[in-house]
Design a protein that fits this description.
This protein is an alpha+beta fold. The strands form 4 sheets. The chain has a 7-stranded mixed beta sheet with strand order 10-11-12-13-9-3-14, sandwiched between helices. It has a 6-stranded antiparallel β-barrel with strand order 15-18-17-16-19-20. The termini are far apart. Helix 3 crosses helix 8. The chain contains 9 helices and 20 strands. Among the domains are: 157 residues, Gyrase A, domain 2 (2-Layer Sandwich), CATH 3.30.1360.120; 86 residues, Beta Barrel (Elongation Factor Tu (Ef-tu), domain 3). This is Aminomethyltransferase.
C-alpha cells in the first residue's frame, strides 16, 4: 500500500533540516529524504542545474555532512593509525581523501581530512555515517589520548562548484581576509577567511568533477553567506543546485557514493580505491585483512557506457553479452547530461572487467548492450 500524502508530509516533517531550509523553500525546491535529512533534490530542472555546474557554476547546500575536530600533540599519529592514509605528512592548509576501514577491511566511510594547524585536524564525513564515524573514530582516537569532538551541529557547509566558481567567490565582497587568495588555494588545499566577523574555512574540494570550493561557516551565518554568493554569482550564471544534479555530476566524474559503490562489505581494491590505502606502512586498522585478501578474486568496480537513451539503474543485473549469464550488478547509473548517452558504475566479475569488454544490462527485461569503459566518464578541461 502506498503511503498517503498526509503520511508523507508527516514523515518529511520529522526529518532534520539544514539552516538553509527556508531559503530552499523560497526558491521553490522539491525535497527528498536523504538519510535523516530533508534535502533539496532540485529547484526546477535538474538537467539545467547539472549543465550550469559544467558550464558556469552551481551552489549546493551540503550542511548535512558531518564535521569532527581532532586536536592534540598526538593527533597526527592517532589519525595515521585510525585511517587508510598517512595524514601526518600533510602540510598545514592541505587535505587528503582517506578511508575509515573496519577491522575486516571494508569501507565504513570515505572522508576528507584537513590539517588546519600542527595539532589540529578537521574530518568531514558523510551525513548517513555520522554515528558510525563518531563511534569508530572516537574509540580509535580516545585510545591515543587526543581530543575528538563531533562539531557537526555548529557548522553549515556550502559548495560552490563550476568553472566560474573562483570568479563568483572573488565577487563575494563579504568573504574577506583570506590567508591566501582563492586563486592560490591548490586542489585539496584550504585557507581561513572572514565572513560576518567570524572565521570561515574555504577549501578547494568538491564532488562534481569541476573546479570549486566548499565553505565551512558557523551555522548562524549560512543564510547571509548563501544570499551573498547567489547575488555575486548572478552575472556569472550561478544557479542553486540540488542532490539530483550532484549525483549525476559525481557519476560522470566516476566518484563513488557510500551505500552504492563503497560500503562495509566492499574492500578498497574492489572499488578502485587502492590509491587511498598506503600499502608501504603498517599499524592501521584493517591492514592485515587487506594484505591477506590482495590476491582474492572478487567483483570489481567498472565503468559502463551504452548507446541510446535507456540507462541502467542501481540494482540492475549486468550480463554476459553472449550467453546472458549474470556477471555483475549496477551500483549507479543515469543518462549522462554532459555526454548524451547512458553511463553506469557496476561491480562485475574480474574475468569481464577489461576495458572494451562487451556486456549487457538488464533494463526491465531488455538486454541493453554496454561496454566496459575507462573512468572517469568525464574529465574537466584544465
Amino acid at each position: 500500500m502506498r503511503p498517503s500524502v498526509c503520511d508523507r508530509e508527516n514523515f518529511m516533517s520529522d526529518l532534520r533540516t539544514t539552516p538553509l531550509h527556508e531559503r530552499h523553500r523560497a526558491l521553490g525546491a522539491s525535497f527528498t529524504a536523504f538519510g535523516d535529512w530533508s534535502m533539496p533534490i532540485r529547484y526546477g530542472s535538474e538537467l539545467a542545474e547539472h549543465r550550469a555546474v559544467r558550464e558556469a557554476a552551481g551552489l549546493f547546500d551540503i550542511s548535512h555532512m558531518a564535521e569532527f575536530i581532532v586536536e592534540g600533540p598526538g593527533a597526527a599519529a592517532a589519525l595515521d593509525a585510525a585511517l587508510s592514509r598517512r595524514v601526518s605528512t600533510l602540510a598545514v592548509g592541505r587535505a587528503a581523501y582517506a578511508l575509515l576501514l573496519s577491522a575486516q577491511g571494508g569501507v565504513l566511510d570515505d572522508l576528507i581530512v584537513y590539517r588546519l594547524d600542527e595539532w589540529w585536524f578537521l574530518v568531514i564525513a558523510n551525513a548517513g555515517n555520522r554515528g558510525i564515524v563518531a563511534h569508530e573514530l572516537g574509540i580509535r582516537l580516545a585510545a591515543r589520548g587526543v581530543r575528538f569532538e563531533d562539531a557537526s551541529d555548529s557548522f553549515a557547509l556550502i559548495a560552490l562548484q563550476g568553472p566560474a566558481a573562483q570568479a563568483v567567490l572573488g565577487d563575494c565582497g563579504g568573504v574577506t581576509e583570506f590567508e591566501r587568495p582563492p586563486a592560490e588555494i591548490p586542489r585539496y588545499g584550504a585557507a581561513r577567511a572572514r565572513f560576518g566577523g567570524d572565521e570561515v574555512l574555504v577549501a578547494r574540494t568538491g564532488y562534481t568533477g569541476e573546479d570549486g570550493f566548499e565553505i565551512l561557516v558557523p551555522s548562524d551565518l549560512a543564510v547571509p553567506l548563501w544570499d551573498e554568493l547567489l547575488a555575486a554569482g548572478e552575472s556569472h550564471g550561478l544557479v542553486p543546485a540540488g542532490l539530483a544534479a550532484r549525483d549525476t555530476l559525481r557519476l560522470e566524474a566516476g566518484m563513488p557514493l557510500h551505500g552504492h559503490e563503497i560500503s562495509a562489505e566492499v574492500l578498497p581494491a574492489q572499488a578502485g580505491l587502492s590509491w587511498a590505502v598506503e600499502a608501504d606502512r603498517s599499524g592501521f586498522v584493517g591492514e592485515n585483512v587487506l594484505r591477506e585478501s590482495a590476491g582474492e578474486a572478487r567483483r570489481v568496480l567498472v565503468g559502463l557506457a551504452s548507446e541510446g537513451r535507456r540507462a541502467g539503474r542501481a540494482g540492475y543485473a549486468v550480463m554476459d553479452a553472449v550467453d546472458g549469464a549474470i556477471v555483475g550488478e549496477v551500483t549507479s547509473g543515469a543518462l549522462s547530461p554532459t555526454l548524451g548517452h547512458p553511463i553506469a558504475l557496476a561491480f562485475v566479475d574480474p574475468t569481464v572487467s577489461s576495458l572494451g569488454t562487451a556486456l549487457a544490462i538488464d533494463v526491465r527485461g531488455t538486454a541493453i548492450p554496454t561496454t566496459v569503459t575507462a573512468l572517469p566518464f568525464y574529465r574537466r578541461k584544465k
